[in-house]
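Whiteboard transcription, Tuesday session. T.W. wrote the structure tokens on the left side:
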């Protein structure tokens, strides 16, 4: 379990590594969709430079983090430089995925980016089963999906073509896939941009100054 959820004995967990890889792609003020317990990504990896939202009132979240209507994010258009969906897009009910990605697009500034992570199918199925079994045997509550109660339209993983299709239909451009090298290529992310000029080079360094992984 240490390897999946929490850092222990000098080892970084799969989740910490996932957050590390994603934080390197964030270009400024960030919206983390499906932030999970304690809003960890925004609070500990982006020095609170952003907002985390979720549909379930997990420990460590406040009213501000919970969105009742997932088809309308409570933010003005062009508010964020980056939007992240970390280990989350497959958990959005299938019929709502396009709407949420369009919301992400609306809330991004021109030149901002979206980052979506996904494990490979075998890794996703195994991880979900191992975590579920561990909780059952040891009485822990690592399995946030069971705690929330999985919706019938959630899935264990999405194929690359499904993710690129969703991103393209929402309007994102320049979509690329990047592997997490330290996870034997079993986990990866997709990057897409909202038209305009990419927030890269000088402007990216400026936008991300002050952002440092802080665990
Ligand atoms: C596997 S957890 C990932 C949590 C966190 N991003 C992380 O990497 O640790 C999936 C998250 O997606 C959230 N979720 C489920 N349905 C959602 C929806 N329709 N919109 C946004 N998030 C959703 C869940 O509540 C849960 O926090």
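and on the right, the sequence the group agreed on:
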């Amino acid at each position: 379990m240490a390897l999946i959820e929490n850092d222990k004995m000098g080892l970084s967990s799969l989740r910490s590594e996932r957050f590390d890889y994603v934080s390197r792609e964030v270009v400024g003020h960030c919206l983390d969709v499906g932030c999970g317990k304690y809003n960890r990504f925004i609070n500990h990896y982006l020095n609170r430079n952003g907002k985390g939202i979720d549909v379930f009132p997990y420990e460590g979240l406040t009213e501000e983090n919970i969105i009742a209507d997932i088809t309308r994010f409570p933010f003005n258009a062009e508010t964020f430089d980056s939007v992240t969906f970390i280990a989350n897009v497959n958990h959005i009910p299938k019929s709502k995925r396009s709407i949420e990605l369009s919301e992400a697009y609306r809330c991004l500034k021109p030149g901002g980016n979206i980052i979506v992570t996904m494990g490979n199918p075998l890794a996703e199925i195994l991880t979900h089963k191992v975590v579920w079994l561990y909780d059952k045997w040891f009485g822990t509550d690592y399995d946030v999906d069971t705690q929330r109660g999985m919706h019938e339209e959630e899935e264990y993983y999405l194929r690359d073509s499904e993710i690129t299709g969703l991103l393209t239909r929402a309007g994102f451009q320049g979509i690329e896939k990047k592997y997490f090298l330290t996870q034997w290529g079993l986990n990866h992310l997709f990057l897409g941009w909202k038209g305009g000029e990419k927030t890269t080079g000088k402007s990216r360094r400026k936008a991300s100054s002050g952002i440092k992984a802080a665990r």
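Someone added at the bottom: Helices lie at 14-23, 40-45, 97-107, 121-138, 144-148, 160-170, 201-208.
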